Amino acid sequence: MHYALTTLQPYLQPTLLTSLLAAFSFPLYEAHLASLAPSLGASSSFAAEVEESKAALKRDKENEKKRKAAPVSMGVGKLKRANTTGMGKLTGFFKPKPKEEEAKK
Asked: What is the secondary structure of the chain as a DSSP string?
């Protein structure tokens, strides 16, 4: 009830508000809120962590979209479709040359 009265405070006449506040007793409610204060502080930090992680996920998705959206050039596209069956591997070009003595044997 106290929350409802504080929410409606801008819309009520001051005399009506004071009479309504005087009609209700709020010590139990205030004691309950005081006991909840430490846990509310922890939940607000948890909420901040959740918001931060959501923002990080959103940034990661945007970065991933940017990386995926890079256009492929025409030459690269043709190389992807090239038939490479029967072609030698590139590692064959980088092997050490055989020594002349071993080649004569």
From this structure: -HHHHHHHGGGS-HHHHHHHHHHS--HHHHHHHHHHHHHHHHHHHHHHHHHHHHHHHHHHHHHHHHHHTPPPPHHHHHHHH---TTPPPGGGGGSPPPPHHHHH-
